[in-house]
Automatic annotation (TrEMBL):
Gene name of the encoded protein: nfasca
An annotated Gene Ontology molecular function: cell-cell adhesion mediator activity
Protein species of origin: Electrophorus electricus (Electric eel)
Biased composition (Low complexity): 703-712
Pfam families reported for this sequence: Bravo_FIGEY (PF13882), fn3 (PF00041), I-set (PF07679), Ig_3 (PF13927)
Domain Ig-like: 38-126, 140-227, 237-329, 334-421, 432-514, 518-607
GO terms under biological process: axon guidance; brain development
Biased composition (Basic and acidic residues): 960-989
Protein name: Neurofascin homolog (chicken) a
Top-level lineage group: Eukaryota
Length: 1058
């Protein structure tokens, strides 16, 4: 399967080629070069409501080459815009304009519109645009009688606005056009009705009118007013809360993903009930929740699937409480997971279009080609639809088209166009030619060269004619062909050549890189304290690349200084001089040097001493420097929840910043610093802290004595606004996880009864959160599995509410000793080395910190002293050198965690005799001369054995006489019934040493002792000894024996050869 291809590349670098303006020019140039199918670039909204007083404009813009032409369908049928005098289409565009200057009704053009953009290479289509005309109907005429209601009773005034398009917004006013004041007791519901939790006699003092505001017509329609008559009661009875909206104890609500969820609970009762909201099985999503209309409305913005569940509102007063449960279900219109993108292929290349969408319920996917269902198109062997993708194999010129993916469910649809353009083109360069790129030494250099080609060109870079091999250390080649030099140095200066080539051709471009020295301030200005009337002198010595022009700017308090013949400031190449300084010259001076590539700056402060010295004569008498006097008369004003204004009278010398201090029991702490020309500041304070302040003045000599303390100021409390830091979880035992964090400072508590709410659950389990509230800075989770990841979060709570929640962190339960390594084996045994390999345990039970290998020599029952080697956790092999080739070892390998070493894996090295020799060892048994010698000896021994056997079988010193062949009955014969008959007649058995002739008969042995006895039968005693005499057989028997088939015996044949 081929890869998706996009053959135009734009690099983003310091040389400006990555700017959007230049990229747009390149795209325009590319469009002029390439023939491509249409692409929709602008269209009206799916739900399109228009103002009936304006002309109707339905947008449809597309690009392509050739320029696309346009057509429209209305309600699924061709819409001929040319025949309707009110309808016109913009030039080189598909946008429709419907004018009503000459008459006609906008309502006549309501319907569903769809735009088609086409050229020679395909057809792109727009969404289906549902056009509707805005409506703002009047209220129906009705006469409203005065309403009689008892004091303390609930009341609902129904609005029921006319159904407009879009629906109007409602609000309540009286006949005098004054808004109805809403509060905890009286409020408007989501449906526009006005709810009274209980009616008071004062409610009859005005009337109530519902108003509907229509957005498009900018009109307000007013309903006839309601008039109330309230029957007063001396003692209004107190009642338990009851729900006015919604009714009952439970209801359900459905919302779509990404939309707002609005839940409402309005209750009646005396006293007026308060409303609280909860979510069963979890917390309300704080960052997305808003409470409105005096807590009666719960708004959740941009809902998602995790917002599903049961929400409970509780209405309560001192008489009692009631609850209502709303079951919320979140559905989803289709949304993209992977939208199909344009595909450019060369002939015979492969590719695919992928269309992935999700939703609830799961959307169905339909593919179209040029606006028509793909099932009804002509068969194409190079195209196949597989699930949510179209696979292309070996595409050919002429098969370009625009494909549409439609993902839809009951809540909506998505439509995406993606063209497949089949073309072949030699590489073309789209950027400027002969670029010059300048960079500062040690900075990153990006050499960009935008190009296009089909098939995808191969990219190479050369420097001064030598090829560059990207190694991701010094050079990195990006997917778009850009060459990145991560840290440019002076030796990188030179000419670089970019080469792009495919089977159709080649394109080259040269880029010159110049590496410049950085600009630095080598002698920076220093802080000065100068007596009034003297000259202040700031240094600013600069070192820079001589080929880069520099601009030196001096600033005072971040504002540029102006130099001229009337200015008191004087500057030269390396300094700034300020003659005859006075108090106006005090401030911070900055030297800034800038080139076209970089800049540097440094600053220093000037303090003028004796600025308020008394002058008795024309000569300026400067008082010797001294510490300033302490400020006096501290006053607090403008108290607020988290701030107060502090004012004081400065001492005799105010040429310094001062500091205020925060009050703590028995301890003063620095709060902040300000410039010496201020004597009144607004202090930002922490909630729920009892403050007292004092001020210290500072000059170049040192700080003054502290002022007298101010009066005390207690700030009001608030929920915590700081997240506890340092949240982490780790196990102290293999069955627990200890969660710790840094407690909030006293000034961060913001209120009494500070507690920490810690939540945890197993990572990726999606189970409910476990929660614990504690005042300490540690919590131990017990009965955990060994080394399991947990998600942890925390927030602080005090009596004023809860603080922000921390980000989720990952903690782990305790580690244990690891299991045995997965395997441990001796993979090679040579004469001088042993090579070992192993793998990490299947159950590491924690973070492996290494391995321990123990081994000792083994010689029968004797063992040597143990040797121990430790390895890092990423080492899984080790080679041991042997003192001699007969040494054997026993090995014990174990893995280690922080807890300790686990069970050992034991192996013993095999004996050298059982192992193969190494390749460089000379083995005599494998030498050719040795093998030949052994074969010759074996053959000689075999021949001697055969000769000896024949000699023995011929009787040696006795004459051998042949015997007449005797017929031999079969040892076993089958009876007629197929069974075997085993004969035991000794007379029918051949004598020991007899031979079988070629005819299958048995010949008696030539060396039979019977031949030498008297008569035909040998006689034996009871002990088996022979009692006959040796005799010589008759010649006749010899003659008969010679006629036997003895010559064919294998033994005799060998004997004859001998």
């Amino acid at each position: 399967m081929g890869k998706l291809r996009s053959r135009i590349w734009f690099g983003a670098s310091e040389n400006g080629l990555g700017t959007p303006k230049l990229q747009t020019k390149m795209l325009e140039r590319l469009i002029l070069i390439l023939k491509q199918p249409p692409t929709i670039v602008k269209q009206s909204a799916k739900e399109y409501i228009v103002d009936p007083r304006d002309n109707i404009i339905i947008e449809c813009e597309a690009k392509g080459n050739p320029v696309p032409t346009f057509s429209w369908r209305r309600n699924g049928k061709f819409f001929n815009a040319e025949k309707d005098p009110r309808v016109s289409m913009r030039k080189r565009s598909g946008t429709l304009e419907i004018s009503f200057r000459s008459g006609g009704k906008p309502e006549d053009y309501e319907g569903e519109y769809q735009c088609f953009a086409m050229n020679d290479f395909g057809i792109a289509i727009s969404n289906k645009i549902l056009l509707r005309v805005s409506k703002s109907p009047l209220w129906p005429k009705e006469v409203l009688e005065p309403l009689m209601v008892s004091e303390g009773s609930p009341l609902v005034l129904v609005c029921n606005p006319p159904p407009g398009l879009p629906p109007p917004t409602t609000f309540w006013m009286n006949s005098a056009m004054m808004p109805i004041i809403q509060d905890k007791r009286v409020s408007m519901g989501l449906n526009g009705d006005l709810y009274f939790s209980n009616v008071l006699a004062s409610d009859a003092n005005t009337d109530y009118s519902c108003n509907a505001r229509f957005l498009f017509t900018h009109t307000i329609q007013q309903k006839n007013p309601f008039t109330l008559k309230v029957l007063t009661i001396r003692n209004i009875p107190e009642t338990t809360p009851t729900f006015l909206s919604p009714s009952g104890t439970s209801s359900s609500k459905m919302a779509l993903r990404g939309e707002e969820l609005l839940l409402e609970c309005i209750a009646a009762g005396v006293p007026t009930p308060g409303i609280k909201w909860f979510k069963k099985g979890g917390d309300l999503p704080e960052k997305k929740v808003k409470f409105e209309s005096f807590n009666k409305t719960l708004r959740i913005v941009s809902v998602s699937e995790e917002d599903s569940g049961e929400y409970v509102c509780m209405a309560s007063n001192k008489i009692g409480s009631i609850r209502h449960t709303v079951s919320v279900q979140i559905k989803a219109a289709p949304y993209w997971l992977q939208k199909p993108t344009n595909l450019v292929l060369a002939p015979n290349e492969n590719g695919q279009l992928v269309c992935l969408a999700s939703g609830n319920p799961k959307p169905s996917i339909q593919w179209l080609i040029n606006g028509e269902p793909i099932e009804s198109s002509l068969p194409n062997l190079s195209r196949k639809v597989v699930d949510d993708a179209i696979i292309f194999n070996s595409v050919q010129i002429g098969s370009s088209a625009v494909y549409q993916c439609n993902a839809s469910n009951e809540h909506g649809y998505l439509l995406a166009n993606a063209f497949v353009s089949v073309l072949d083109m030699a590489p073309r360069l789209l950027g400027p030619r002969n670029q010059l790129i300048k960079v500062i030494e040690q900075s990153r250099a990006m050499l960009d060269c935008p190009f296009f080609g089909s098939p995808v060109p191969e990219v190479r870079w050369f420097k001064n004619g030598l090829g560059i091999a990207p190694d991701n250390v010094k050079y990195r080649l990006h997917n778009n062909g850009t060459l990145e030099i991560k840290h440019a140095r002076s030796e990188d200066h030179g000419t670089y050549t970019f080469v792009a080539n495919n089977i159709l051709g080649q394109a080259e471009e040269q880029i010159r890189l110049e590496v410049k020295e950085p600009t630095r301030i080598v002698r920076a200005p220093e802080h000065l304290s100068v007596n009034r009337g003297n000259t202040a002198h700031f240094d600013c010595k600069i070192k820079h690349d001589p080929t880069l022009p520099i601009i030196v700017t001096w600033l005072k308090n971040d504002k540029p200084l102006h130099f001229g013949w009337m200015s008191k400031f004087k500057k030269d190449e390396n300094s700034l001089s300020i003659p005859n300084v006075n108090s106006d010259d005090e401030g911070t001076y900055m030297c800034m040097v800038k080139t076209e590539l970089d800049q540097d700056f440094a600053s220093a402060r000037l303090t003028v001493l004796g600025a308020h010295a008394h002058t008795h004569t024309r000569t300026c008498l400067v008082r010797p420097p001294d510490r300033p006097d302490p400020p006096e008369d501290l006053e607090l004003s403008d108290p607020a929840a988290r701030s107060v204004r502090l004012t004081w009278v400065p001492g005799n010398d105010n040429n310094s910043p001062y500091e205020e201090n925060r009050w703590r029991p028995g301890e003063w702490q620095n709060l902040s610093s300000y410039t010496g020309d201020q004597n009144s500041v607004n202090l930002l304070l922490s909630p729920f802290v009892n403050y007292q302040f004092r001020v210290i003045a500072i000059n170049s000599v040192g700080p003054s004595r502290p002022s007298g303390p101010s009066s005390r100021y207690q700030t009001s409390g608030a929920p915590p606004d700081v997240i506890p830091q340092g949240l982490k979880g780790w196990g102290t035992k293999k069955t627990n996880m200890e969660i710790t964090w840094q407690p909030l400072l006293d000034t961060q508590r913001n209120g009494p009864e500070l507690r920490y709410v810690v939540s945890w659950r197993r990572k990726d389990s999606q189970e409910e959160w476990n929660n614990i509230s504690t005042t300490s800075s540690k919590h131990v989770v017990s009965d955990t599995e060994t080394y399991v990841p947990y998600e942890i979060k925390i927030h602080a709570v005090n009596d004023f509410g809860r603080g922000p929640e921390s980000s989720m962190v990952i903690g782990y339960s305790g580690e244990d000793m690891p299991g045995v390594p997965k395997f441990f084996r001796i993979v090679q045994r040579n004469t001088d080395t042993i090579h070992l390999e192993w793998d990490k345990p299947l159950e590491p039970n924690g973070i492996l910190i290494g391995y321990t290998l123990q081994y000792r020599t083994v010689n029968g029952t004797e063992v040597g002293s143990p040797q121990v080697v430790s390895f890092f956790p990423n080492v899984t092999e080790y080679t041991i050198r042997l003192p001699d080739r007969f040494t054997r070892y026993k090995f014990y390998l174990s893995a280690r965690t922080q807890v300790g070493s686990g069970e050992s894996y034991t192996e013993e090295s095999p004996h050298f005799a059982n192992e193969a020799y190494s390749k460089d060892h000379v083995d005599i048994a494998t030498q050719g001369w040795f093998i030949g010698l052994m074969c010759a000896i074996a053959l000689l021994v075999l021949i001697l054995l055969i000769v000896g056997f024949i000699k023995r079988s011929r009787g040696g010193k006795y004459p051998v006489r042949d015997k007449k062949d005797l017929p031999m009955d079969p040892v076993d014969q089958k009876d007629q019934d197929g069974s075997f008959d085993y004969h035991s007649d000794e007379d029918n058995k051949p004598l020991q040493g007899s031979q079988t002739s070629l005819e299958g008969n048995v010949k008696e042995s030539d060396d039979s002792l019977v031949d030498y006895g008297e008569g035909g039968n040998g006689q034996f005693n009871e002990d088996g000894s022979f009692i006959g005499q040796y005799t010589v057989k008759k010649d006749k028997e010899e003659t008969e024996g010679n006629e036997s088939s003895e010559a064919t015996s294998p033994v005799n044949a060998v004997y004859s050869l001998a």
